[in-house]
Design a protein that fits this description.
The structure is a single chain. The chain has 2 domains: 220 residues, no CATH class; 140 residues. Helix content is 69%, strand content 0%. The protein contains 18 helices and no strands. The radius of gyration is 22 Å and the shape is globular. The model has no long low-confidence stretch (mean pLDDT 88).
């Protein structure tokens, strides 16, 4: 923490004196050090505090480089919020770990039970439900996004209220497949073949929807589940997955009618010759922090919990009866770039105090989940841990915990976990 405090002060000072490269480098160095410290201490590649440090602090460092003309100097309150978001999470995580006696290296104390049979039926059932929901949406809406041309935001229109949650639940199947085969798979080769086929179908659905994020989420969740279950991963495995994902990402980008000229026009990079494979990841990380600063500077009043409770309004249908619950503007610096940070809605509701309290809650939840990993008995616990790890790794991306889809995934994971428990 002492290293972070020094680097944060250096970053703030450098930014104040107009030195963006020094400002960004200071925080990037802190992110690398903090993750390395957590990994060396615990031996857990997916240590939740380490992931949050690497990606939240590292993402802020990337944003501080100010490579786009869209970026401006941040308000002092923005710097305070980013600081509290990390410090509160870090301290509460450490406190809860110390109080529960789980602040120790990652050594699994009990192995998970074998649940191949219920996993097999749950994989097939979830695949069937997701496929049926996708087909219903395609027939009802009259199009499949992949086959449209010249429509950059076709996926945004491919939503039938309530049904789309079922469609995108397919992203959990690859993670379940990882557990299925890690536990030995079925003795019947025909069942193993069906599981593989179901996984392929569930990876095809995001492609047909032209959803790069859902595809990346499915693959990342499967990889994180594998790491959480085995405690290790080969670099070769990661490189193979990355090599396989890259052409798919490019194909989906083209299918969304997002050509290089279109994207560069949105990103407004200071260096117009910067390659798109650098400028696109950069802006998808950096601009989220800019959007938070827009919120800080433009928000006229706070909403006192209404934003954070959006999953309740959406999943219960209350938003249709009380439209004012969701009728609040999103403050962003460009309408095409609408991704936000993990703490956007917390600030929207309660300001600086909301960011601090929300970070404390996340730190406590992450510490509890990290402690459970060492004695996980239900295999779906690893899938839950993988999801939480993704949310920590993509903390710069969006407001995960005020997104109803996140809680729907948690609910599906819980249902499958109950099936495994009941059958075990």
């Amino acid at each position: 923490m002492f290293v972070y405090l020094i680097c944060y002060a250096a970053s703030f000072t450098a930014a104040h004196f107009g030195q963006p490269y020094l400002s960004g480098t200071a925080l990037l160095a802190a992110a690398v050090y903090l993750y390395r410290h957590e990994y060396r201490r615990t031996g857990n590649l997916l240590h939740l505090r380490g992931l949050f440090a690497a990606f939240w602090v590292g993402g802020q460092g990337v944003a501080c480089l100010k490579l786009s003309r869209l970026q401006t100097d941040w308000a002092a309150e923005t710097w305070i919020c980013f600081f509290l978001a990390f410090v509160c999470f870090w301290c509460v995580f450490g406190l809860v770990s110390y109080m529960t006696g789980d602040d120790t290296p990652y050594v699994r104390r009990r192995g998970p039970k074998n649940h191949v049979r219920p996993l097999y039926y749950c994989i097939l059932a979830l695949t069937a439900v997701s496929t049926a929901a996708f087909l219903f949406e395609a027939v009802y809406l009259g199009f499949v996004p992949l086959f449209l041309r010249g429509v950059p935001h076709a996926y945004s229109a491919f939503h039938v209220t309530g049904v789309h949650y079922l469609t995108v639940s397919c992203v959990l199947v690859p993670s379940m497949t990882v557990i299925f085969f890690q536990q030995g798979g079925s003795r019947r080769s025909s069942r193993n073949t069906l599981v593989i086929a179901a996984t392929v179908v569930c990876l095809l659905i995001p492609i047909l929807c032209v959803s790069r994020f859902q595809l990346i989420f499915a693959v990342a969740a499967a990889l994180f589940t594998y790491i959480a279950y085995t405690g290790q991963v080969r670099l070769r495995t990661v490189l193979i997955l990355a090599a396989a994902m890259l052409p798919l990402y490019v194909i989906l980008t083209v299918a969304r009618s997002h050509d290089i000229e279109y994207l560069n026009g949105i990103f407004e990079m200071k260096n117009p010759d910067m390659p798109i494979f650098i400028s696109q990841p950069y802006i998808y990380i950096a601009n989220n922090y800019e959007n938070f600063n827009c919120l800080v500077e433009a928000l006229p009043w706070h909403t006192h919990g209404i934003r954070l409770l959006f999953p309740v309004w959406a999943l219960t249908g209350l938003k249709f009866f009380f439209p004012y619950l969701i009728s609040f503007p999103i403050y962003v610096d460009k309408e095409e770039l609408t991704t936000l940070t993990l703490f956007y809605d917390a600030y929207y509701d309660f300001g600086v105090a909301g960011v601090a309290v929300f970070s404390c809650v996340l730190g406590a939840a992450a510490a509890w989940l990290d402690s459970r990993l060492k004695r996980m008995r239900n295999p779906m616990g690893f899938v839950l841990y993988a999801q939480f790890a993704i949310y920590m790794a993509l903390s710069f991306f969006t407001t995960w915990f005020s997104n109803p889809t996140t809680w729907f995934y948690f609910a599906v994971t819980g249902i499958v976990a109950f099936c495994c428990f009941w059958a075990g």
